[in-house]
Design brief:
single chain; mainly alpha; about 80% helix; about 0% strand
């Protein structure tokens, strides 16, 4: 019977913590913000889903990994991270 340490080791080996988990967390945050803000109007779950998937993919694709990161991707990921932090702070104070 596999223990929790074996499960975590297998997840680390498969890249769950490096790729899948950050993607899901980013997607959930963006989808939640779009749904709560109702930017595209009432009943726009499909549009929110598409925009959140595209944005989460963009964040994962342009997040710098390693020393050879491109400066533009570093700038874009830092800009998005800062913007996300500000938006979440505002939502926390409004809620």
């Amino acid at each position: 019977m596999a223990g929790i340490t074996d499960l975590i080791a297998a997840g680390k080996e498969l890249g769950v913590f490096q790729f899948y988990l950050p993607f899901i967390i980013t997607f959930a945050i963006i989808y939640g913000i779009l749904t709560k803000a109702k930017i595209f109007g009432e009943g726009s779950k499909n549009i929110n889903l598409i925009v959140a998937l595209a944005r989460a993919r963009f964040v994962m694709a342009y997040t710098p990994v390693g020393p050879a990161a491109i400066e533009l991707s570093t700038f874009i990921s830092n800009l998005f991270a800062g913007t996300l932090l500000i938006v979440l702070t505002i939502i926390a104070f409004l809620a």
